[in-house]
Amino acid sequence: MNRKRFVASLGLITGGVLSGYSNLRNGPVPGTGFTPGNGVDVWKTVREEFSFPEGFVYLNTGGIGSVPRHVRSLVSDEWFRLESNPTPGHDLVKWNALKKDAAALLGQGVEASEISLISSATEGINIILNGLPLQKGDEVITSTHEHAALNIGLLNQVKRKGIVLRTFEPDRNSGLNNVNLVENLINKRTRLIFFSHRMTTTGQLMPVREIGNLARSKGIWFALDGAQAPGSMPIGLKDWKVDFYTFSSHKWVLAPRRTGVLYVTREKLDDLTPVTVGAYSDNGFNLAEGKLDYNATSQRFEYGTQNELLFLGFHASLRYINTLGISEIREHNEHLSELFRTGTGEISGCELLSPEEREYRSSMITFRIPSKTLSGVMDAFSKENIHVRPVGEGGLNAVRVSFHLYNNTDDLDRILACIKNISNS
Ligand SMILES: Cc1ncc(COP(=O)(O)O)c(C=O)c1O
Predict the structure, then answer these.
(1) For a pocket test of ligand 1, which of 228, 249, 250, 310 has the largest count of ligand atoms closer than 8 A to its C-beta?
(2) Span from the CA of 227 to the centroid of ligand 1 (angstroms)
């Protein structure tokens, strides 16, 4: 079946890939001189902003995003300009403008003063875990599907402070049941609940609003590893009562590597001691008097010389994402991932591991072919020039496919054909 007939046969021909354009807002797509309008294939133009070679299928945005062409040019031009008169420090006007837009990305009511610009989700996780006054015997609830970044960060606290970890295996059949799983682990020693907003293993979305309410009602800190969410879906941290949130913008926001965000709600700012500090962390200090005032905002978690070029790139990528529209991007991505689910459902021997419930699944879909070894499956993808990610976490032995704004139905056809071949071989 050719692609058009395949898509039409699923009754989705008028879905996101073909209908989202009319909703696009905010004028021209940066760097392209192109203003989206009715009936224009904006996603085709978007694809041209990236440098994927002909025949290569990139389906691992959950691992790392690709930076748009115009953002790379901007960073490179700016680098040349800056090197003509090297100046220490960074432009605080631009820096704070980025914080304002990063705050907006995290939902209504989030303020720039609650944002610090950091290198990655890994750094954010460490700032949270090292900064909280956790003590020997304090309990932290997390899931068995976390990325190494959170596992290692938590185990470091076990080693350093003697905290105790309590884990739940995410319920993939009933998303809401995860609230009960968390609640069952709470006792009077529980100080922190910390897991992923969107699971790296299966793309599962967690019931964060319900768990946020639960944590707040019990006086427990609630932190989310958001590495996989911003840039792919709308966020509402205030609404969900999240105390601490961190993400890497080099994934779904398509920013240069080593750019990320930490959010600390203003009400809990003083709960978190800044551990790594330096110039910019303070609001004044005096060595003779032994006095140090932390910066009054989340800037207190920033320190020393920054690579502001990367953050200029981050801001340009974020503007690009905002111009296309988060909801439109989500619609586009999930249109592809829904087609992918339906397509894999028709391949015998292919088992889907991502949630069945619409509300809890997303544009990252995980599957396995139980009759084949994971290394054999990965080799087959590699031979076909298709980049996907193996999932070892949670003992899944599976493959994760991420769909983002540069992916299209040709990519979909290629991966479905490859899975079919692997299953039949
Ligand atoms: C859920 C999750 N947390 C943290 C990370 C680590 O991201 P980084 O290496 O950008 O800090 C990843 C990376 O894939 C992830 O999926």
Answers:
(1) 228
(2) 5
- How many beta carbons lie within 10 A of that of residue 311, not counting itself? 24
Flag whether the pTM goes above 0.85. Answer: yes
Please tell me the predicted confidence (pLDDT) of residue 18.
Answer: 31
DSSP string covering 181-199: HHHHH--TTEEEEEEESB-
Cβ < 6 A, ligand 1 pocket: 63, 120-122, 147, 149-150, 196, 200, 225, 227-228, 248
Q: Domain boundaries in the chain?
A: 3-69+325-424, 79-320
Q: Measured from the CA of 63, which atom of ligand 1 is nearest? A: 14
d(CA 102, CA 116): 9
* CATH classification for the domain delimited by 3-69+325-424, as one of 3.30.420.40, 3.30.710.10, 2.30.30.240, 3.90.1150.10: 3.90.1150.10
For 376, the 3-state DSSP assignment is: helix
Least confident of 38-47, 121-130, 219-228: 38-47
User: What is the whole-number distance in angstroms between the Cα of residue 111 and the centre of ligand 1?
Assistant: 24
Nearest to 414 by CA among 157, 58, 91: 58
Q: Tell me whether domains 3-69+325-424 and 79-320 share a fold.
A: no
Residue 307 has pLDDT above 60, yes or no: yes
Judge residue 161's burial from the number of C-beta atoms within 10 Å of its C-beta, 0-12 exposed, 13-18 middle, 19 or more buried. Answer: middle
CB under 8 Å to 358, separation ≥6 — which residues? none
39: Cβ–Cβ under 8 A, 6 or more apart, which residues?
Answer: 21, 22
2.60.40.10, 3.40.640.10, 3.30.365.10, 3.40.50.720: CATH of 79-320 = 3.40.640.10
Mean pLDDT in the chain?
Answer: 92
Mean pLDDT of 119-139: 98
Q: Give yes or no for a contact between 419 and 369, defined as CB atoms under 8 angstroms apart.
A: yes
pLDDT of residue 358: 96
For the chain, the residue count is 425
